[in-house]
Amino acid sequence: MSEMIRIAIQKSGRLSEDSLNLIRECGIQFNNGTGKLKSEAANFPAEFLSLRDDDIPGYVADGVADIGIVGENVLIETHQKVDLVHRLGFSKCRLSLAVPRGDDYRQLTDLHQKRIATSYPRILSNFLQEHKIEADIHEISGSVEIAPSIGLTDAICDIVSSGSTLMSNGLKEVEVIFRSEAVLIAHPNLSPARQQILDKLIFRIKSVQAAKNNKYILLNAPKDAVAQITSILPGMKSPTIVPLAEEGWVSIHSVINENAFWDIIDNLRAAGAQGILVVPIEKMIM
Ligand code: ATP
Ligand code: MG
């Protein structure tokens, strides 16, 4: 049998959908039948294992899976021997300290000698140590946000995205202690054959990410505006310039970054660009 890589992904939760989308965007087809623990890709040497996210770093460290997708928070908290090989940019969230809304919290030292409930004792204790705060960490596995209202602790440390859970439990966010996103992790000693498959996968992921961050832009401009317009366009290399049937006009094509987008569009219009088209890029091979 030829070499295959085993990829651990979250079975169902906040990482699952984006993980599956990324894999699909990498052109990998597989049949993700519901409730199936294992499935094989049809057109890539990979097999997928659907697991609870907390178990993924351990399975990758043990070599049961070769690589996996997890939140960086879980990666740090589980403290398994795996390599972080690529940042994936989705499932972004923060781990924050929160206290009852009525507290007049001013600074971190206010938490000295206080009790803090969390599912992330390692990340929290590292943070507290770094800031020389001595507090009593209560590890609980779920519903951390109710701990203060039932009198278990004075504060909590939990994942926040919008803050509405904190709000509805009478809490306010006071410090961000860690920012997380989904990451690709790998077993530290992959066989050369599997490493090669991983490299191929990372190459595809980078192409997908680059494409998402960029747009293809086409516009028409009078010839005498070309110099100014090309100076506004920070393309991959130099822009493509094609003459139009109409005398004195050209079509200019380039690639622009998603973030610079609106500023660039305004500047282009001011420089005389017309008929501007901005289209998504499916893959961008660097
Ligand atoms: P499992 O059943 O697999 O153990 P879980 O309930 O522990 O799942 P999820 O809530 O699905 O975990 O979250 C998975 C990961 O997604 C978290 O570890 C974190 O990295 C990220 N995450 C958590 N909450 C959010 C959020 N509100 N927005 C974005 N990402 C989040
Ligand atoms: Mg979990």
TrEMBL record:
Name of this protein: ATP phosphoribosyltransferase
Any one annotated GO CC term: cytoplasm
Gene: hisG
Assigned protein family: Belongs to the ATP phosphoribosyltransferase family. Long subfamily.
Domain spans labelled Histidine biosynthesis HisG C-terminal: 211-283
Reactions listed under catalytic activity: 1-(5-phospho-beta-D-ribosyl)-ATP + diphosphate = 5-phospho-alpha-D-ribose 1-diphosphate + ATP
Pfam families named in the record: HisG, HisG_C
Key words, A-Z: Amino-acid biosynthesis, ATP-binding, Cytoplasm, Glycosyltransferase, Histidine biosynthesis, Magnesium, Metal-binding, Nucleotide-binding, Transferase
InterPro entries referenced in this protein's UniProt entry, alphabetically: ATP-PRT_HisG_long, ATP_PRibTrfase_cat, ATP_PRibTrfase_HisG, HisG_C, N-reg_PII-like_a/b, N-reg_PII/ATP_PRibTrfase_C
Location within or outside the cell: Cytoplasm
Activity regulation, short description: Feedback inhibited by histidine.
Pathways involved: Amino-acid biosynthesis; L-histidine biosynthesis; L-histidine from 5-phospho-alpha-D-ribose 1-diphosphate: step 1/9
GO MF annotations, alphabetized: ATP binding; ATP phosphoribosyltransferase activity; magnesium ion binding
One GO BP annotation of this record: L-histidine biosynthetic process
